[in-house]
What we know:
alpha/beta
Amino acid sequence: MTDLDHRYATRSVPRYTSYPTAPHFHAGVTGATYGDWLAALAPSSELSLYLHVPFCRNICTYCGCHTKAARKDGPLHDYAEILLCEIDLVAARLGSGHPVSHIHWGGGTPSLMPREPFLAITAALRRHFDIGEACEHAIELDPRTVTPELAETLREAGITRASLGVQDFDLTVQKAIGRVQPFSQVARAVDRLRAVGITQINFDLMYGLPHQDVETIAETVRLTRELAPGRIALFGYAHVPWMKKHQRLIDETALPDTRARLAMADFARHELVEAGYEAIGLDHFALPDDSMALALRAGTLRRNFQGYTTDTADTLIGLGCSSIGRLPQGHVQNMPDTGGWSRAVRDRLLPVARGFALSNEDRARAAIIEQLMTGHMADLAEIARAHGFAEVHFAGDLAALEEMIDDGLVEVSGSRVTITEPGQRYARVAAAAFDAYLDRGTARHSLAV
Length: 449
């Protein structure tokens, strides 16, 4: 582990899937606020939709998602009924016919939703929104749940992209995180999806899990290459037992240290690039003909609550408990508990728990952070002008980058800030220099690498 890693990789900084980040959301933004924001959108405003299904059959010990165990389908049927009502509520504020460019189902395990309510929800989306043939319709899947019947249901619903939670193929690691799924099971899931025409496949892999080392990562990468997903997300495991109590079941003595985490991340990155994948930002990889690689080269890559994305819509509508939305006016988050969320929707109220109304300064800083996180370059003067500020408005923030500049991790030429290739692994640290809220809160964040 280098001196640079000692000084930067161990820092606790946000992942910057939003700005300001979620710990700064507050209860001053209500359902009434959200309703006004929705009504103010122009009928031609392009939308993306996120639907959260907070249920799994069992909770994996590493999981950082907002979910809970549902052994039977009853809670899923009940949840679908309320989700349909929430879609109606949102559409009533918006007005029908807004074009939709992206739909994403997350969880939890959204594929646990039984066939009939799942198809009813997708039909409701088509009824209320203009969903064209070019719309990307994605879903997160547990490979263990992908039966031939599910694959056919997904095809019928119009799913075009599936993201499989693989994490690691090593049996010892899988047992330690409560998610045993042999390679053969994952391969069958991929085959079943491709057989029905769902050929855009993503894999989620992780490093930093208990009992992982470079050898287990090497085998996981080798097996992943055999199945040739178009995209791969390689996430560092965030051990946050103060937030996710089930992570206390993980033996902390089996977790790799920072040096080992960095070695695994570097090895996996090298192997994936050698295999022909293009590195995307901090933790994504895509084959050259994948839309994400094309977006990177075109300068249109974006970052939102799902991470790196090709979604360029200015408005993200979150549906379901705990889901987060982003509008030009600000961020909103639904109530995190299914009970409170359900009661609000039944009372015909938009179930918002908190949010953040953006100032023009916030929007400008969000643009700087997003550009540093996606393309590793931001022109501070250009962004300042675009938001009505003097060109030197953000010049004072450069002082926070002095250490990274001295270390050759960041370069500044005029008003242009560029993260150098050696500095790209610490992009979150560079982005944090422009976070005006970071020192105001008490939230704990994951390691920078």
